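in:
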């Protein structure tokens, strides 16, 4: 009598959650992105490990990392999910194709783009998206010159309330354990002079008469956060973009309050294509809940 061995079954839902866990490296953040509790995500990862009979994740104090088996599964999972989503989109008749040129500031790109693009790709896997990261003023210039099709940009909060999709508070950011916020004059690491965070930092300090000096300038979040990590200066970022190893400086630090900024979507065409209209609707429906 020939015995039959049941083959391993890789559940699509488990693979999708696994891919998000691998991307974020933090179970709680992955849970937020897939709309589940952290306990549910943890249980899914356990079920997947049992299915393949291999350890996939190594837990540590800061999150999770992939084991050798996890790295191998991730490569297969990405192929499986892409093929699955292409089949669903084609058979359902809702798939679009084409290319989009998307602009996004660095701070929003790190937090918002992964779930935004992942969700859109599931529905429209034949669409390719070129992403350009730059401060809002540079993105607006590229929209004007038709170098970009669409951009996620920042606006002052109050004057443009009807255009705003989401609001983000600006915060002072420093290195943990650093006394940079007590220096006199205050040493600042700021982005381009025409950006909202740069203008808000200077205006708030001028308002309270606090001496300061723009000691470091960078058009990228990576550059600003590198300076802050050195302990030589403080920066102004949107709250959602503050890395875990840096700290939001409290009111007790003596720094003035900063305003919030609004996030909106700008199109580079007066008569957008169906693809561009669909992408705009997707961002407007998903971004407020991220």
């Amino acid at each position: 009598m020939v015995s039959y061995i049941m083959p391993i079954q890789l559940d699509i839902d488990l693979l999708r959650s696994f891919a998000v866990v691998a991307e974020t490296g933090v179970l709680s953040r992955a849970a937020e992105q897939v709309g589940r509790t952290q306990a549910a995500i943890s249980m899914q990862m356990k079920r997947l490990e049992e299915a393949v009979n291999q350890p996939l994740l190594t837990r540590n104090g800061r999150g999770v990392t992939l084991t050798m088996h996890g790295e191998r599964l991730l490569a297969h999972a990405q192929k499986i999910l892409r093929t699955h989503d292409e089949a669903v989109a084609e058979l359902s008749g809702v798939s679009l194709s084409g290319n989009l040129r998307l602009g996004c500031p660095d701070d929003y790109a790190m937090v918002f783009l992964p779930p935004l693009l992942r969700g859109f790709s599931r529905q429209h896997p034949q669409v390719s998206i070129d992403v350009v990261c730059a401060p809002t003023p540079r993105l607006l210039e590229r929209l004007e010159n038709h170098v970009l099709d669409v951009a996620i940009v920042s606006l002052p909060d109050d004057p443009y309330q009807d255009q705003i999709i989401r609001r983000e508070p600006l915060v002072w950011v420093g290195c943990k354990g650093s006394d940079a916020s007590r220096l006199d004059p205050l040493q600042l690491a700021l982005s381009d002079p025409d950006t909202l965070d740069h203008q808000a930092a200077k205006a708030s300090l001028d308002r309270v008469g606090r001496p300061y000096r723009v000691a470091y300038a960078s058009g990228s979040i990576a550059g600003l956060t590198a300076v802050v990590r050195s302990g030589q200066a403080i920066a102004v970022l949107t709250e959602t973009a503050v890395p875990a190893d840096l700290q939001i400086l409290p009111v007790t630090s003596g720094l003035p309050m900063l305003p919030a900024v609004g996030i909106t979507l700008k199109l580079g065409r007066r008569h957008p294509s169906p693809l561009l209209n669909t992408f705009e609707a997707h961002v407007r429906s998903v971004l407020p809940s991220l």
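note: The longest helix spans residues 68-92.
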